[in-house]
Structures are given as structure tokens and as C-alpha cells.
Design brief:
The complex is a heterodimer of chains A (103) and B (235).
Chain A lengths: L2 H23 L7 H19 L10 H16 L4 H18 L4
Chain B lengths: L3 H28 L4 H11 L2 H12 L4 H25 L6 H8 L4 H8 L7 H25 L5 H7 L2 H16 L1 H20 L5 H19 L4 H8 L1
The chains are: A mainly alpha (103), B mainly alpha (235).
């Protein structure tokens, strides 16, 4: 096996084992209210920490990222379906990129 | 209602976001001296962004295998934690084979979207979401590796915000109803920004999970949720 293929195998194997071991071997459900609350909050915390500040550089340029973010926040606040918010943010960012050079 | 189709629906925005991220990974792979097939193979077998980029850089630099292993371990350690948390939400129909299969697709985004669902998670739902996200990831890599320099950059760039738009749509409506969720979100964002500014040595994946962990611990401590409150915010 070539060095590159072996390297890819190491990457894939390591990444898979990290994901697999806790998922397969830790199946007990935690009972404490604090621990359950923690697991209840963790996805919101992860999503929030993923969005900020990365969203402002997500399109490669700040102005279109901000326009897209504002559109997304307004639509999300009005409980618009996920995919509509995602596409509207992209469209707003795209239009901004097209228009910006002429402003 | 957690069906395969529902999983695909929830995974579409993830796939769109992945398309643009993996597109740039495809370009990077070929630029780093890998063949198109090797670049695609990495995306098929790894399904992770930061780990793949670091891996390609190490391969290009002729790094030792042990260095590659340790780097992947550090960058991807956050998944161990996410798997642990997701395991808490797994339905009874998750037996060892389903767990072995689904574990492959536990990415930051899949984890967050799946674990925010009310109640338990069914294997089919997770398969649908992972399947479509996987197609986006591998499809984007292929496009980037094969035709990276020919496609209009503005379109792939604009798709880069799709993922974040979806995340905002997930967290904002429940934050309107629950003070605890709102507090956790604000805390996570503030911590993440502080880490980004003041602790540059903490790499991206780490600063994300560190900010999230602290925010969730504070939330659980200050705003413990009862099961009825949980269902209320989910409704």
C-alpha cells in the first residue's frame, strides 16, 4: 500500500473510532436532572458556537455575509422552515455579491 | 414523525452547506499534490472538515504516521463527546449494527440537528440525514477536485452561508420561548468570540466545543429543565 493510501487509512480509522467507541459502548442513560439538562442544552450551545463568529466570513466576504445573516435572523424569528431560511440567506448573499460592485 | 424522508429533509440544508465547504476541500486536495481519486477517497472515508484539511496538509508535508494519528485524534476528539451525548437520545431500535453504521456520520452538524429533535432518535431518521449530507460532502469534493477552477466562485461562496442560516432557524424559535436556551446561546456566542480573540492557540474545533461545554454546564446549573419544560420548549 502506498504511503498516501496508508495515511488516508490512518485518518479514516482514527476519525471513525473516535465517533464509534462512545456511541457503541456507552448506552446507559443518565438519570440526574442536572446531567439531563446539560444534554438538553448542549446542541443549542454547539450550534450557537458554530454560527458565531464564523457566519460573518461564511461567504468569503463580510458585506454579503452580514446581509445573509440579517435575512436569516429575521426569517428564523418568524419561524420560517429551515430550508427556506438557508436558501434565502444564500440568495441574499449572492445578490449582494452581484450588486455590490455597482454601488 | 421520524422517517427516512424526514431525515433527508432535515439534512438538505446540511448537504448544501457541505457542498461549498467540501468544494474548497476538493480544490485543496488536488493543489496539495493528491490525485482526484485520493482526494475524493478522503471525503468518502472521513466525512469531517477540519480533520481532512489538516490530514492533507500533513500528507503533503510527508509527516510521520504517528503525527497524523495524533493530529486527527486531537482535532476530532469533540466527536467522542457528541457521540456520547447522541447515545443518550438513541431509540431502542439502535442495536450494535445500527450504532456501528450511524457512528460514521456523527459530524458537528448532524449531531446538533439530530439531538435537538424532541424525544428519542430513530436509526432511519439518522440514516436519511447522514445519507444526504454524505452526498453533499462527496459531491462537493468531486466538483472541487475535478472542476474547481471553472465554476463561478460566487455561487459556491454564497452557498457557504446556507448551513449557518439553517442553524439560526433551529436555535432562534426555541430561544424565544425558553430563557434557559436563550441564556445558553448568548453565553456560547460570547465565549466563542472571546476565545477567538484572546486565545488564538485554541484551534477552531476546540474553541467551539469549549465554548459549548461551558455554556451548557452553566445552563444546566442555572436553568435546570424538568421533563415537562423540555417538551414545552420542543413543541
Amino acid at each position: 500500500m502506498s504511503r498516501i493510501l496508508f495515511s488516508i487509512a490512518i485518518m479514516a480509522g482514527t476519525t471513525y473510532l473516535i465517533r464509534m467507541i462512545p456511541f457503541v459502548f456507552v448506552q446507559t442513560k443518565f438519570k440526574s436532572q442536572r446531567v439531563q439538562s446539560f444534554f438538553y442544552y448542549i446542541p443549542y450551545a454547539v450550534l450557537a458556537a458554530m454560527v458565531m463568529p464564523a457566519v460573518f466570513s461564511s461567504t468569503g466576504d463580510t458585506v454579503s455575509s452580514i446581509v445573509g445573516t440579517v435575512v436569516a435572523v429575521i426569517l428564523a424569528y418568524r419561524k420560517t422552515p429551515l430550508i427556506v431560511v438557508a436558501l434565502a440567506a444564500s440568495l441574499a448573499a449572492y445578490l449582494t455579491m452581484l450588486v455590490l460592485p455597482y454601488l | 414523525m421520524q422517517t427516512f424522508t424526514q431525515g433527508i429533509k432535515h439534512g438538505i440544508s446540511i448537504a448544501l452547506g457541505y457542498l461549498s465547504v467540501s468544494f474548497s476541500f476538493g480544490i485543496l486536495g488536488v493543489q496539495s499534490g493528491l490525485t482526484i481519486w485520493q482526494t475524493i477517497l478522503i471525503s468518502i472515508t472521513n466525512l469531517t472538515s477540519a480533520g481532512q484539511v489538516a490530514g492533507v496538509e500533513l500528507i503533503a508535508a510527508n509527516a510521520a504516521y504517528v503525527e497524523l494519528f495524533l493530529t486527527e485524534l486531537l482535532i476530532n476528539l469533540r466527536y467522542a463527546f457528541m457521540s456520547l451525548a447522541l447515545s443518550q437520545k438513541a431509540d431502542r431500535s439502535f442495536h450494535i449494527p445500527q450504532r456501528l453504521l450511524a457512528a460514521f456520520g456523527i459530524t458537528d452538524e448532524i449531531f446538533a440537528v439530530a439531538s435537538i429533535q424532541p424525544g428519542t432518535i430513530k436509526p432511519k431518521y439518522l440514516y436519511g440525514m447522514i445519507g444526504i449530507a454524505f452526498l453533499g460532502w462527496v459531491g462537493g469534493t468531486t466538483l472541487g477536485a475535478v472542476a474547481g477552477s471553472y465554476l463561478p466562485a460566487q455561487i459556491t461562496n454564497a452557498l457557504g452561508i446556507a448551513l449557518y442560516g439553517m442553524f439560526l432557524a433551529i436555535i432562534i424559535p426555541p430561544a424565544k420561548k425558553s430563557r434557559g436556551i436563550l441564556a445558553v446561546i448568548i453565553c456560547a456566542v460570547v465565549l466563542r468570540i472571546l476565545l477567538t480573540i484572546f486565545a488564538k492557540w485554541v484551534t477552531g474545533g476546540f474553541s467551539m466545543i469549549l465554548a459549548a461545554l461551558i455554556a451548557a454546564v452553566l445552563g444546566a446549573w442555572l436553568f435546570p429543565v424538568s421533563e415537562s419544560a423540555e417538551q414545552e420548549a420542543d413543541a
